[in-house]
Specification:
CATH superfamily of the largest domain: Hotdog Thioesterase
Helix content: 10-25%
Shape: globular
CATH architecture of the largest domain: Roll
Number of helices: 6
Structural class: alpha+beta
Number of strands: 10
Number of domains: 2
Largest sheet: 10 strands, antiparallel
Radius of gyration: 20 Å
Order of helices and strands: EHHEEEEHEHHEEEEH
CATH class of the largest domain: Alpha Beta
Length: 290
């Protein structure tokens, strides 16, 4: 059970549109993250810090890290209610937490670690005291941040290259944080296909992968036209899921843009119920784990 602290809470409701769901009628991870990003923007406005405030003060909030855990699929027509609050402040950073319900059913939870920066230089700036007060900072000690797991890709890691396109950008003219999750999930699909397990083979085996969690750290901004190298590899396997790590690099292969740890559950092809991994697929994944 998620305990929601008594602070400045904000709730936003939205309906899952037909255009928001994937080939299996389930809300895409990136769409859910965009909904949470909008919830955060409206929560800030509700507390007195609207986009005009940030423009007037020459400041921005940039996401440093996002975690998302999905407990159940969200389908077309479901009414979502996101509840969000600031979990802590750390001088130039703050963590915003979210929990998402459809009716009484908890379908997701997430957190974002934000950095308060100067709009021009992008250097961190001290979070104003009035902002801390408005969001209900009660002096509770800052929450511990687990370091992002370090791991170098093995030689067998799958690699794909993609170019940043215009529709990938947000209002800051860099790749939106939710779009990186699209990149990560596509890289996982491409890796499975390269290992002779494309979607058609998965469906023939009676199942498919569903992304159920992401932990993404953003290290640099990717811009229009940038060529990005996505490197992904499985790092752990259970009876019904695989954990993958993904690093997104600039084309030179030396400058990381983002990295992620993601979990993909094996589910029944059409109803989406959890199922054990097929033995041949599990064997392929185990062989790739170093």
């Amino acid at each position: 059970m998620v305990r929601v602290p008594v602070r400045h809470q904000f709730r936003l409701r939205a309906i899952a549109w037909q255009a928001d769901v994937d080939a299996f009628g389930e809300l895409r991870s990136a769409t859910l993250l965009r909904f949470l990003q909008e919830t955060a923007t409206r929560a800030s406005t509700d507390a007195g810090f609207d986009p005009a405030y940030y423009a007037r003060t020459g400041t921005l909030r940039l996401i440093r890290r996002t975690t998302l855990t999905r407990f159940a699929p969200i389908r077309y027509g479901d009414e979502l209610e996101a509840t969000t609050w600031i979990a802590d402040f750390r001088r130039v950073r703050s963590r915003r937490d979210y929990v998402v319900h459809t009716g009484e059913r908890r379908v997701a939870q997430a957190s974002t670690d934000w950095v308060f920066v100067d709009r021009t230089s992008l250097r961190p700036r001290r979070i104003p005291l009035e902002m801390e007060a408005a969001f209900g900072d009660d002096g509770t000690p800052s929450l511990a941040r687990a370091p992002f797991p370090e791991s170098a890709p093995p030689p067998s890691a799958a690699r794909t290259v993609r170019r940043v396109e215009l529709h990938d950008l947000d209002a800051l003219q860099h790749v939106n944080n939710a779009t990186y999750v699209q990149y990560v999930e596509q890289a996982a699909y491409d890796a499975d296909a390269a290992a002779q397990w494309p979607l058609a083979a998965q469906l023939a085996a009676g199942g498919r992968f569903r992304a159920v969690s992401h932990d993404v750290e953003y290290l640099d901004g990717a811009l229009l036209g940038d060529a990005l190298v996505l490197v992904t590899w499985p790092c752990a396997i259970t009876t019904d899921a695989v954990e993958r790590r993904t690093t997104i690099l600039r084309r030179d292969g030396e400058h990381p843009v983002a990295r992620a740890v993601s979990r993909y559950a094996w589910v029944e092809a059409h109803r989406g119920e959890p199922r054990p991994l097929p033995d041949p697929l599990a064997a392929v994944l185990r062989a790739a784990i170093v």
